[in-house]
Amino acid sequence: MTTITVCTTCRQPALREAKEGAPCGEALLAAVREAAEGAESVSVRGTACLMGCEHGCNIAISGTGKLTYVLGSFAPGKEAAAGIVEYAQGHASSDSGAVPFRQWPQAIKGHFVARIPPLDDPAPDLG
User: Fold this and answer.
1) Which of 19, 48, 49, 118 has a 20 to 30 A CA-CA distance from 60?
2) Tell me: the pLDDT tens digits for 113-124?
3) Would residue 46 count as lying in a domain?
4) pTM
5) How many domains does the chain have?
């Protein structure tokens, strides 16, 4: 099982200072939940603050014993949500969590912020 964690307090840079209206992260969470309906290998949850404010809106894709990926700079919407879920499904089907570049949906390219090794394998050789 792969989990998509969406930062619910994220605001895109242009909206961060004004703090008017609901955070963009809430809209992204709703869109990702909708896109993940029926995706059996993916679960979705929200959390307050992934501490990636410079990259808002942020998400993390993780699974037990697998690489965790942090992605950011998303605009909430169906296209971003569909790409996030598609990538998460690839993560779920991969033993390590790595998804070959040729399988990345266009909607997530250029959004990667960090790749974190699994805790049970502190020094994986991923090339």
Assistant:
1) 19
2) 999 999 876 555
3) yes
4) 0.90
5) 1
